[in-house]
Design a protein that fits this description.
binds pyridoxal-5'-phosphate; 5-stranded mixed beta sheet; 2 domains; 3-stranded antiparallel beta sheet; Aspartate Aminotransferase, domain 1
Length: 469
Amino acid sequence: MNDHAIEYPAEPWKIKSVEPIRQTSRPYREQAIRQAGWNPCLLRSEDVYIDLFTDSGTNAMSDRQWAALMTGDEAYAGARSFYVLERAVRTYYGYEHVIPVHQGRGGENIVSRCLIRPGSHIPGNMFFPSTRAHQELNGATFHDVVIDEAHDPSSDHPFKGDVDLAKLAAVIGEYGDAIPYVSLAATVNMAGGQPISMANLAAVRELTGRHGIPIMFDAARAVENAWFVKQREAGWGDRSIAEILLAMCSFTDGAVMSSKKDSFANIGGWIGLRDGELAERARSLALLYEGLHTYGGMAGRDMEAVARGIEESVEESSIRARVGQVEYLGHRLLAAGVPVVRPIGGHCVCIDALAVLPLLPREEFPGQTLAAALYVEGGIRGVERGGLSAGRDPVTGENRYPPMELVRLAIPRRVYTRAHLDMVADCVIRVHEERDRIKRGLRFVHEPSHLRFFQARFVPADGDSIFGG
Ligand SMILES: *Cc1c(COP(=O)(O)O)cnc(C)c1O
């Protein structure tokens, strides 16, 4: 037995409906990635065998969720399905005011417009691309106040999503009244799906409370965070996931939810708020940007699927299998010596591209290069989370190079089998063993101004391939 052997929890579901996927040849994939401008995001999904680009909206809905679709009330105003969603959010997340939005970023737009003014400053436990983009579009400056360990892929800190209270106090000391809220994420995506502890949430609440600063919660993966609290934090092991989730949210004043994550939905989201006056303002903006405040860009049936998904997400067997699958993949890679972010996160395994390709300069985007190589090797699609995703500084226009340059393999919920995960592991291990074959990185031929990683196009920095030449 090696140290990294890990139990693979049997799934609490069986498969009722399947979707064919297709393997392709290596020459086919080399051609495909070239046509996609060396950006896996621009590949056709049919050309991908195992798609780990994101766990967002790519989940398998349950038979109960599909059945719930048929009960959707498509009334323009006051649909019954809205009240079903409202009850689920109030019950499991505890926010009194619930405003549906088409997906998370719709909520980010509205919350940012309500609360941010030019010159605002927003501290947060690491940035998320769409969240920070909305904050910056509205004139705010984002301040990363996550603990240093979050930026160290090899640190085994159990709560790498924790806020560094001294950093937060310093930002409050400097900008005080110009801080409309603190932006907190549960399981920090850019750190590799790392949780925030309950103790830290309480401490942040205490500190911000003294200054009258609200906390806005990014709840996309709060259920996964609740699972880690149950596993790792003293005093919470005997509590249910639902109790922990509610306790986490109780430290916050509002939340934006992307239901495409924890809630197993293909689309949808909501804003949850405690303050009635702020909720009124948010509803009036929702009217302009999303839809009436009782559907917010979602069909009635989507609200039914989200409500049902919320209930399923807090079932312990469900979240155990979900996180266990991710940990299984991560530990297979660790056992083979592949440098991945530790501890293994809740929704993804992140490969440390700087450790795999130490000779490639940052300007040639080692993460993006490694993501392209994984696709060519095995038809597996991951996403860069490094310099390309970080974009340019809005003031100086310089590239931002975050300390970590990762390739994220996000695992959709209830979609892939253990054999698929073994294929992914074998492919990553092969690319790692043969990493010397990757000689050059990539340079832009098209660079979009916002969220550039989605649509950027590249060519190899030298020659016509990243392999040799
Ligand atoms: C997905 C996500 C968002 C944005 O939500 P969308 O539904 O993709 O618009 C915001 N924050 C986090 C942490 C997310 O994972």
